[in-house]
């Protein structure tokens, strides 16, 4: 590898990609100040100036509920910008790695989703992410699209940090128990991405599912967070009570089943992510819970 461009440098995945790709060549990490996916001219400028061999696009519009009231902005960032990245990457022969979501599926069946299943997003966020996938595929060139789910880390706004904050404030938390998925750490995603790149497999363009192993509900995720997090002295964590999603309405509708099979990823690259509980334990071990 020579030059690696990471977009979304200050986001939770961007931070972990910078760690995972240490020693992979010259790493250039840009935040929105230097490459704003809502402004196409900054994308083209960054690609021309950096001229990378690998582009890791960890930048996205990720505010799922807010996207319902900002569909145009979400589409520019998630739907249109990936196509521009793909065009610029193809011009210089770079590999584009892009991250998508379980929300391209409607969650209407009990078994894990595979890459060839019919897509049917339920919300604006999912529709914009699907549009990004389609734009990249239309442009062609060398690309990898990794669909992932329920991403969290010690940084930024995510479910883990929200639960820990609320856990300091409340005696009881009511959390949805009828949406199933695989919580996935940004660190596990970043390391798996590096492993795929290191596999040096040629002509691998396409979509692959990349999530931690196992499954749980949002309620089960919250319960495991507090079970594994050592409470600071003099404090106890709250009781977590499961509720149906009908009792917690949100602007964006969520799929009931977000589980995705990683069989294609494992078969093609020999890459497997850890069990979600183990990844959670690793994340908590590196956090100050005081």
Tell me briefly what this model is:
This protein is an alpha/beta fold and 290 residues long.
SSE layout and pairing:
Blueprint: E1 3-7, H1 12-20, E2 26-30, H2 40-50, E3 54-57, H3 71-92, E4 95-101, H4 124-139, E5 143-148, E6 151-152, H5 159-169, E7 172-176, E8 180-181, E9 184-185, H6 186-199, E10 206-209, E11 216-217, H7 218-228, E12 239-243, H8 263-269, H9 276-285
Parallel strand pairs: 1-2, 1-3, 3-4, 4-5, 5-10, 6-9, 7-12
Antiparallel strand pairs: 8-11
Helix pairs in contact: 1-6, 2-3, 3-4
Kindly name the structural category: alpha/beta
Indicate the CATH architecture: 3-Layer(aba) Sandwich
For the termini, the CA-CA separation is 41 Å
Report low-confidence residues grouped into runs of 5 or more: none
Number of helices: 9
Q: Beta fraction of the residues? A: 15-25%
User: How would you name the CATH homologous superfamily?
Assistant: NAD(P)-binding Rossmann-like Domain
Task: Give the overall pLDDT as a whole number.
Answer: 93
- How would you sum up the global shape? globular
CATH topology: Rossmann fold
What's the alpha carbon Rg, rounded to whole Å? 19 Å
Number of domains: 1
Order of helices and strands: EHEHEHEHEEHEEEHEEHEHH
Strand arrangement, largest sheet? Answer: 2-1-3-4-5-10
Oligomer: single chain
